[in-house]
Amino acid sequence: MALRVTLLVQKEDRSRPKKDRKALALIHRIFRACWVENLDPAKADVMQALCNEVGVNGRDLVERASGEEAKKLLMKTTNDALSRGVFGVPSFIVNDHVEAVTAIENSPFEEDASSSTEPALFWGNDRLEVATLASRGNKPLLRGDRLASL
């Protein structure tokens, strides 16, 4: 449900001015719902509420998410992702069309002066900070104290 709804919102965003786009806000809201609030965005009522909170029509999107357009969009996006090495959600590809990586305050990672323009795949909620640094062109390095705690 969440993937289909998000894809529909991304599609709609293409016709919105950049300042009015909603997909990124919805993605962030879904992540928070899952990992902080222990909500299940696979439930229609939860997804509808999350959509409404970020300013998109949750009822319409949840209804359309079970339609053919959303199914085809998800199949195409899934096949594209698999061809690029993506194997789970959330995944972030850096240096090749980054949209879902945002700044994280007080990162436990150090920034290195070296940078890379090679595409890199980061998977998992615990890799958001590393993906953020990579999106800025920095090579993330673990601090000794952080490394010791792993």
Explain what this protein looks like in three dimensions.
This protein is mainly alpha-helical and 150 residues long. It has two domains: 2-83; 91-149, no CATH class. 49% of the residues lie in helices and 11% in strands. It contains seven helices and four strands, in the order H-H-H-H-H-E-E-E-H-E-H. A two-stranded antiparallel ribbon has the order 1-3. A two-stranded antiparallel ribbon has the order 2-4. The N and C termini lie far apart (34 Å).
Secondary-structure topology with pairs:
Elements: H1 2-13, H2 23-35, H3 44-53, H4 58-65, H5 68-83, E1 91-94, E2 109-112, E3 120-123, H6 128-135, E4 139-142, H7 144-149
Helix pairs in contact: 1-2, 1-4, 1-5, 2-3, 3-4
How does the helix and strand content classify structurally?
mainly alpha
Count of domains: 2
Roughly how much helix do the residues carry, as a percent range? Answer: 40-55%
The average pLDDT is 76
Could you say which overall geometry the principal axes of the C-alpha atoms support? globular
Query: In whole angstroms, how far apart are the ends?
Result: 34 Å
Give the radius of gyration.
Answer: 17 Å
Task: Provide tags for this entry.
150 residues; 2 domains; two-stranded antiparallel ribbon; 7 helices; disordered C terminus
